[in-house]
Amino acid sequence: MNVTHLECASCHKNYEAGKLHNLCAECGKPLLVRYDLERAAQTLTKESLKNRQSNLWRYAEVLPVENESNIVSFGEGFTPLLKAEKLAATLSVKSNLFIKDESTNPTQSFKARGMSAAVSMAKELGVKRVAAPSAGNAAGALAAYASRAGMETFLFMPKDTPRANIVECEQTGANVTLIDGLITDCGKIVAECKDAEGWFDVSTLKEPYRVEGKKTMGYELAEQFDYQLPDVILYPTGGGTGLIGMWKAFDEMQQLGWIDAKRPRMVSVQSIGCAPIVKAFHEGDMFAAEFPNAQTVASGLRVPKAIGDFLILDALHKSGGTAVAVTDEELINAVKEIGAAEGLFCAPEGAACLPALRKMIEQNLVKENETVVIFNTGAGIKYLEAFS
After folding, report:
1. Domain membership flag for residue 309
2. Distance (Å, rounded) from C-alpha 136 to C-alpha 157?
3. pLDDT, tens digit (0-9, with 9 covering 90-100), for 277-303
4. Alpha-carbon distance 296 to 271, whole Å?
C-alpha cells in the first residue's frame, strides 16, 4: 500500500492511515487520501497498464486497499468514451464532442466506483454495518457492494426517490427507510443515529474513500485520450465527488509524470431548481449556502448543500471553468435528443450537460475545434417517472 496518511482538505491536519475516520476532528471538513507517488510510480506506469485488468482496480498503486483479498468488485470502471459526432453536428461551434458513459458500470451508475472503494476499505478496517443517505443511485450501489462484502446496510432516502432505486436496494438486502424530505434530512438521521446503532457513515465525502474510487474517471480519461486531457469537462453536480475526484487524479498524474500542468476547464452542471454551486460560483463565494426549496426531477442533482462545496468551487476557479444551471424541461428534452442522436438512454443528470454546453457556446466559453467531454453519470431506465 502506498498510502502515507489522510489529510484534511481544509485545515490540512494529518490523520493516520489504516484506521476508521469520517470528517476532520478539528474543522469538520472532508479527509483526502495521500500517497507516496514516487513509490507508486515504480510499478504504476503507462506501459504496465497495457496488460492490466480493464476495471478501476488497474490503478491499485493509487487506491487505498492494502490487502487484495479485501477488494469488493463487480468489475466497475473503464467505461466507454464515445465520440458523439451527430450531437456535435447540432452545435453552433464545431467541437470534438465525447460522452463518457458511466451507465455501463455495475448498478448502472458512476456510484459503483465510489462504493467499490469505500466498501473495500470498510471491509479491510473491520466494518460490519454501513449507513448512508441517498437520492437514488448511491444507495443502489452501496446496497450491492455491502451485501457482497457481507455487511448490513441501512439506507435513508427521500420518499420521491425514483422507484427503481428503492426496489433495487430492497432486493439487494438493504434496510430502507423513506423520509418525507430531502437528502440533507436523510443525512441528519444517519448522523444522529450512527453511534448508537453501530453504523459506519459512508455519506458523500464524510469518509475518505468514495472519492478515491471516483477519481479513476480522471485516470481513465487520460488513458483514453493518450494522456492529452480534453479542453472542457462538463460534469453533473450534486455532491460533486466525481468532479473533486478527477481534479485530485489530475494532480496525482502530474506528479507521476504522465501529464503536464495543463488542465481541462471544469464545468459544474446543475438544475435551476437546485443550483447552490452555480449561485456560489457566480457570486464569488468560497462556500455554497444551502439552496432553499430544492426541486428537480434529476434526483441526483437535488443536493441543496454539498459538504465538498469549497473543493468543487476551487476546481472550477483554478481550471478557468464555470458553473451552469439548466431547467428541468431542458434536461428532460436532452435525454431524448441524446438518445435519438447517439442511442444512449442517459440519466437526466447526465443529459443536463448538453443544454449546459449550448449555453456555454452562446457565451463564447467553448472555442472552435476544442475537445469536450460530457459525463453521463447513470442509466435513464432508473428514472421512468421523470418521463411520464
Report:
1. yes
2. 7
3. 999 999 999 999 999 999 999 999 999
4. 7
Q: Is residue 294 part of a domain?
A: yes
Strand pairing of 322-326 and 371-376?
unpaired
Cβ–Cβ < 8 Å for 375, 353: yes
- CATH number of the domain that residue 371 is part of: 3.40.50.1100
- Whether the pTM exceeds 0.85: the reply is yes
In a domain, 195, yes or no: no
CA angle in degrees (0–180, nearest 5) for 96-98-103: 175
User: Cell numbers 463487480 label which residue?
Assistant: 74
Contact 321, 313 (CB under 8 A): no
Count of alpha carbons within 13 Å of 11, Cβ hemisphere only?
10
Q: Strand 96-101 and strand 81-83: pairing?
A: antiparallel
Amino acid type, 26: E
**How many folded domains does the chain comprise?**
1
Q: Rounded distance, CA 81 to CA 220, Å?
A: 9
Length of the chain: 388
The rounded radius of gyration (Å) of the Cα atoms in the chain is: 19
The domain containing residue 226 runs over which residues?
81-109+210-387
What pLDDT, in 10s, does the model give residues 142-190? 999 999 999 999 999 999 999 999 999 999 999 999 999 999 999 999 9
Domain membership flag for residue 363: yes
**Which of 175, 176, 174, 178 lies closest to 159, judged by CA?**
178
